[in-house]
């Protein structure tokens, strides 16, 4: 943690300006305490006396990356039945390590969209209080969904009579569940609008919450100042979630033309986790994912990538989110390869992971670009990331709030 009045100067050989989508040469960033206090051409920059100087003149400097869809408390190698023996406390402690890994990989902010036992809230608060290092976090607590749906736990027999704590059926129960999550520290409300891949006995294409339930959830959440992120693979779930007014659609695998148009008209962000397919198909069985999950992935994985291209070209807003926890934490930047392969320029992919994600998180005032007044969350890579976003898998420098995390 840097002292409140400590001054640091970063010499940036190339600086990615995500606001204008351009690369600026030979820039100097001045950081006072946690915040950026000036940025501009090195030629005209005044060096404050006694400042610590960090020389990144041979590197490309970018704002810290943002992953809008993580599960820091989830271990990908403990999937399916393997996960049943993990307590919420153990999962939260696992999150201590994944928080560090995620930050060291250049992700200085994450939106964590679902955790048991409010482990994400505990991580967020412990990081903010300096107990250990990790990214800035937006948290959801439990993901909310229907009984037997993607956000319930369906692996146990009826004798055990177990229902996940995020389960809420009917508009008023769902409203009450939103209030409960907000009470215990949710910054954002996560719901399951459709079935999923990694859940037992449901279908990604099938809708779960009704329009009426989602309207209740969204009005309650917005009234309490929380945005809503809706897990939705299937077209009808996507449609109803957007009409209900959710702020983002997660996965969006089977989005159709009408859904793309609706997302564009409503300004709903799409957060499409198009790297996961690789890990699920290569490692999933070993990790404990159910055979039915692998089969479901084979049906949606490629469609999701094709629909990513369609949705982006169709003008839908996109924010970077990966579902980290389905695959190993710290590999988040591997998704850039697919975002470029399926239609974005490297600059557009970087914008999805910075300025757009900051907007989705409601944190455009504090993160997402290297701008005066924002937190000094800054990363660097040796290669030219603006022309090749896959360079972001090799981050060489990470600063969070003026404190150097990795150099
Ligand atoms: N959590 C998501 C689900 O179980 C993961 C989907 C991963 N697959 C994909 N193609 N993105 O539904």
User: What name is given to the CATH topology of the largest domain?
Assistant: TIM Barrel
Overall shape: it is: globular
Let me know the average pLDDT: 97
Number of beta strands:
15
User: Which strand order does the major sheet show?
Assistant: 3-2-1-4-13-14-15
Unreliable stretches, pLDDT < 50, 5 or more residues?
Answer: none
How are the SSEs placed, and which strands pair?
Blueprint: E1 7-17, E2 22-32, E3 35-41, E4 52-63, E5 65-70, H1 88-104, E6 107-112, H2 119-128, E7 136-139, H3 171-183, E8 188-192, H4 211-223, E9 227-232, H5 235-244, E10 248-251, H6 257-266, E11 269-271, H7 276-287, H8 291-313, E12 317-318, H9 335-341, H10 346-361, E13 378-381, E14 395-400, E15 403-406
Parallel strand pairs: 1-4, 5-6, 6-7, 8-9, 9-10, 10-11, 11-12
Antiparallel strand pairs: 1-2, 2-3, 4-13, 13-14, 14-15
Helix pairs in contact: 1-2, 3-4, 4-5, 5-6, 7-8
Residues 196-198, 204, 251, 253, 273, 276-277, 280, 297, 300-301, 304, 323, 326 line the site of arginine.
């Amino acid at each position: 943690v840097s002292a409140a009045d400590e001054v640091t100067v970063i010499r940036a050989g190339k600086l990615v300006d995500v606001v204008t989508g351009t690369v600026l040469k030979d820039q100097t960033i001045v950081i006072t305490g946690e915040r950026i206090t000036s940025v501009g051409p090195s030629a005209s920059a005044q060096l404050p006396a006694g400042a610590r100087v960090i020389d990144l003149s041979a590197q490309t400097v970018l704002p810290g990356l943002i992953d809008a869809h993580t599960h820091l408390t989830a271990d990908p190698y403990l999937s399916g039945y393997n996960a049943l023996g993990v307590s919420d406390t153990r999962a939260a402690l696992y999150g201590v390590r994944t928080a560090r890994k995620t930050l060291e990989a250049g992700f200085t902010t994450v939106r964590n969209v679902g955790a048991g036992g409010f482990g994400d809230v505990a991580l967020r608060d412990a990081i903010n209080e300096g107990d250990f290092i990790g990214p800035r976090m937006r948290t959801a607590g439990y993901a909310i969904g229907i009984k037997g749906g993607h956000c319930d736990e369906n692996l146990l027999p009826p004798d055990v009579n177990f229902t996940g704590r995020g389960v809420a059926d009917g508009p008023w129960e769902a409203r009450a569940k939103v209030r409960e999550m907000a009470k215990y520290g949710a910054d954002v409300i996560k719901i399951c609008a459709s079935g999923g891949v990694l859940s037992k006995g449901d279908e990604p294409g099938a809708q779960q919450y009704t329009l009426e339930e989602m309207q209740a959830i969204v009005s309650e959440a917005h009234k309490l100042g929380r945005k809503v992120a809706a897990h939705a693979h299937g077209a009808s779930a996507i449609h109803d979630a957007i009409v209900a007014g959710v702020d983002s659609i997660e996965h969006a695998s089977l989005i159709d033309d009408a859904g793309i148009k609706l997302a564009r008209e409503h300004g709903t962000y799409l957060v499409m986790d198009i790297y996961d397919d690789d890990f699920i198909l290569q490692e999933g069985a070993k990790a404990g994912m159910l055979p039915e999950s692998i089969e479901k992935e084979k049906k949606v994985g490629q469609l999701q990538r094709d629909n990513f291209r369609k949705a982006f070209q169709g003008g839908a807003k996109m924010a970077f989110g990966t579902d980290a926890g389905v695959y190993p934490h710290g590999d988040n930047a591997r998704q850039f390869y697919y975002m470029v392969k399926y239609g974005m320029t490297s600059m557009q992919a970087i914008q999805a992971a910075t300025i757009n994600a900051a907007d989705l998180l409601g944190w455009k005032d504090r993160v997402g670009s290297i701008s005066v007044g924002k937190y000094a969350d800054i990363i660097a890579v040796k290669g030219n990331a603006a022309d090749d976003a896959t360079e972001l898998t090799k981050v060489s420098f990470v600063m969070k709030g003026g404190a150097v995390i990795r150099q």
